[in-house]
Each structure stands twice: as structure tokens, then as C-alpha cells.
Amino acid sequence: MFSKAMISLFSICLGFFSSACVWASSDHNGHELVQDVHKVGTHIEFEEDQDEVYQAVKKGYIRPFSEMYAAVENDLYGRIIKVELEEDDDIWVYELKINHQNNIIKVQYNAETMEMIMIKGRNFKDAIKHDK
């Protein structure tokens, strides 16, 4: 019979192996590599081809969507309705459109640091979380 410890170890190894397989299958598609999560109702656009994105991810210039979503959730109220990823003057940028109280807020995040670098739109100050 298998002990609980052996079953747990097997589960951990299986989970690691599954994750490694997903990572490996995404090796040739930079867009899939970045888009590690998808939220329903969010339109996604990549301005650069997947090979450029793949190389930028490997070099650490682009953080995955899960980290971008976490940064937005930490900084802002509202729902992301559009995400664009593009390179601008050698800096990778997430350009977002967020719906907050029926106002469209445009936000840019540095894709490497997850630092907000621009925000604008009608009543955008209402969308900013001040209780950090």
C-alpha cells in the first residue's frame, strides 16, 4: 500500500511534470507563454510577433499576465476590458483599458517592473486605490 507521504510526493511530482510540459509546449509561442491566465471578457492584442515576445520573456523583460493582473488589482478598481502588449523605445509596455463606473481608464504598466507609468481618462482618480 502507498503511504500518505508517497501519494503527496507523487502528486507534487505529477504537478511539477504537468507544469513543465505546459511550459515546454509554450516554448515556441511567446504569446501563450505570457498569457498564463485569461479573464473572460478581456480582449487581448499583441503588437509584436510571438518570437520577439518569447525572447523578451526569456530575458525577463516581460512578466506574465498573472503578475500584471495582480498589479492592477493592487492599484486600481475596475475591470480590465482590453490588454495590449507592445515594445516602445526598448521598453515592453502593457497598455490596458479598464472599465470603472462606466468610465474607460487607459493605463500603462512597464511589463518588466509592473510599475504603473501612465493613467488617464474621465474620473481616473476615482479608480485609484489609495489604501495600499
TrEMBL record:
Secretion signal span: 1-24
Keywords: Signal
Protein name: PepSY domain-containing protein
